[in-house]
Write a structure and sequence with these properties.
The structure holds two protein chains of two kinds. Chain A is an all-alpha fold. Helices cover 76% and strands 0% of the residues of chain A. In chain A, helix 2 runs parallel beside helix 5, helix 8 crosses helix 10 and helix 14 runs antiparallel to helix 15. By secondary structure, chain B is mainly α. The relative contact order of chain B is 0.10. Classes of the chains: A mainly alpha, B mainly alpha. The interface between A and B is large, with 95 and 94 residues. Chain B: Its main location: membrane. Chain B: One of its GO terms (molecular function) is phosphate transmembrane transporter activity. Chain B: It is found in: Cell inner membrane; Cell membrane.
Chain lengths: 459, 428
Amino acid sequence: MSAYLFLLLIGAAVIAAYLGGSRALAVATTAETGRIKAHSRPIYHGLNAAIWTAAPAFIFLLFWLAFQSSVLNQLVVASYPGSDAMDSAAQSLLIGEIRQVAAGNLFRQPSPEVAAAADHLRSLQTYSTYLMTAISLCIVAVGAFLGMKVISPRYRARHSVETAVTVFMMFSSLMAIIITLGIVGSLVFEALHFFAKVPVTEFLFGLRWEPQIAMRADQVAGQGAFGVLPVIFGTFVISAIAMLVAVPTGILSAIYLTEYAHPRFRTVVKPLLEILAGVPTVVYGFFAVLTVAPAIRAIGAAVGIPSSPNSALATGLVMGVMIIPFISSLSDDAFAAVPRAMRDGSLALGATKGETIRKVLLPAALPGIIGGVLLALSRAVGETMIVVMAAGLIAKITLNPFDAVTTVTVQIVTLLIGDSEFDNPKTLAAFALGLVLFLITLGLNLIALRTVRKYREKY
Amino acid sequence: MSTTAVAGTRFNWHSDEMKARRKARYAAERRLRAYGLIAIVFALGFLAFLVGSLTFTGYKAFTQTVATVSIDLSKAELDTSDLMKADWRGAVRDTLRTQIGDLPRRQEKAYFDLFTSSAPFLVRDAVIKDPARLKGSSSFVIPLSDQADQFVKGEISRDTPESQRRISDEQIGMLDQLVSKGVISSPFNWALFLNADSRFPELAGLAGAISGSFWSLLVCFAISFPIGIAAAIYLEEFAPKNRFTDLIEININNLAAVPSVVFGLLGLAVFLNGFGLPRSSPLVGGLVLSLMTLPTLIIVTRVSLKAVPSSIREAALGVGASKHEMIFHHVLSLAMPTVMTGAIISLARALGETAPLLLIGMNAFITSPPDGIFAASTALPSQIYMWADSPERGFVSRTSAAILVLLGFLILMNAIAIFLRQRFERRW
């Protein structure tokens, strides 16, 4: 229904633009004996009429759709007998059930109260749709009338259109802030719910992470099952392995490409390297499971090291390869930013190219490279699909790369796939983990961006 | 005086000591160079290995072993008044029996297991689509079941001991008989593109995932493209330089580096839980993806706006255009090819994104393609994730094939972007 309404809005706007334009032309020519002396060209009058017609109704529709279901939920729950006595968790369960019944998904015979509530919800939904359609049609009609009425030769339609466009642009540039607020808000809000059930100290300093056990109500808190340290430790073990692969490979390949390679070689190889960054991570994950993990297991068995099927080594290795082009291109930039004179000076003193690179270029480019490495680290910490497919699920503190470890992102995904009832600590724990992940990566990014920027200003 | 002393101890560059030193220095130089080359070879080798192994496991999924049989439906005792409930199973089994010599009853089950268990439904759907087939014999294509398909493709070796493979010796004998009769063939597997998901590998296809990805990307583009361009224009051309716009800028840079799974959490908490939008729908998927692509798009657009020389702006303003006209008629249209390139590349990135889609439920098992942005669906990468988790052997090659399809789309999009860039690249 709402999709048709949006289409209707677009249609109405097009018609209004056409009618407004032709009316502006007519008004302008009749007023001044055949000569057009309007302030704005007809197209602006048309656009203005279209904006008047569609924009208010569009904004109204967005708000209505955004808040419709939560308002309806409130209404239905309020009319449900005995709902005052329920806590919010029981209420959200109830809403879920009523919604399922109202949508016609019957798994078992609903209780009469639920059936009645579902009927109530359905009638409310129909009512709400009618109301939404009626109000938005009214807004369209009023808007179109006003938009057509203002058309006159004196009317500064262009200014009004430009103001509308500017308002839209200002709103768009605020989107970045709105998204950030949305992220922080939703993470903090749900994490606070979590911390109401599990103490913060338990979460931050606990040494055991066993969220699945905490399904039972009597085991929620105090059991140390939500200690985040092993998960963070596992994240850094895998990231460290990835960085061990990516940092030397990335920097060395950047050195070769900027200093030694023939330009033609560079133009071929550089895009090829970038492909590594463009491959979807789910592909790397599948590759790690299908090919790399068994290979590492076989190698481990050959040299007598028992290896788990989900070894941290396989995961880290594949993740490291994913990050290579990232580090490579950032170090590339850093080398390119070192002034020519420094390089030439070193060469003129008789240093070899290699000595120039090691003693002059690397130290000079170091801040930029470190910034790049930090950005890459943040990417490794936040990387999800490779670890979800290839890393383990059991959180433990170990430094053995042949062992399986779990990461923050793995836990977020496994906690949230399947059910999303926002009442048990298991689901909410994912948001607490998300908050931790966001803060870690935010910190790394801020330091990295600052390092890179500071360094760029130097030369 | 001292100068002569220095001149007296003139350096002998040709001494053995210096020769050894020089040799060591040159060797170090060559080593560094070799290390760089090794690093590149490692990275590219890995890429080649990745693509190679995926192609090697995936190419077999592009064909499917099928049996082409002709069924005379006029002879089968079918209840034509209610086609949905007629005894298709019996009709199909009768036909399949005729394809092979007399079988003892206890072997029949093994024989029927060679064909997909959905064969009656395939025949039923084909007849409902074309009722004329009821009036005589017509040929039907029936896919073989997963293990028979794997065997014909050579994935399961004849030499494996019988206890270690899922196809028995007597089934192999029957298959050989069918092959010698010319019933079995391996045509191109169109079902991979035309069918939606299924629990049976021989029937599973990508149609649902492809259309789900398409709808999500459409929503993503419809939201992020206008908003991204508007934001970039405002920040680049209109915004005053103050602390607030600085804040917005830092914010955009940071958003571009926020892990994707966090955007999934946002979508789950705000769009699904807060606004009550339909779970698993391309609408929510597209919304989340658009939030992710927005920062990149804004950054790209700003760069391309900056690249338009100020003489264009001054000329437009000089002949009396308003600031908006200058931007929309001249600057933006000159920057548009670069903006489009950036948009396509960020859409390509969104196409491969998986983690946020998992959190908003776009990994549901859905057996029909979605018919819009509100219907539950999957997307290509989440379909790959689901298939990768499936235990059936046939899904291993199908996962690789799906990855090849996804990579194909990515290469196509990037090729379009490169083409646009080269076609419209402008040197000022």
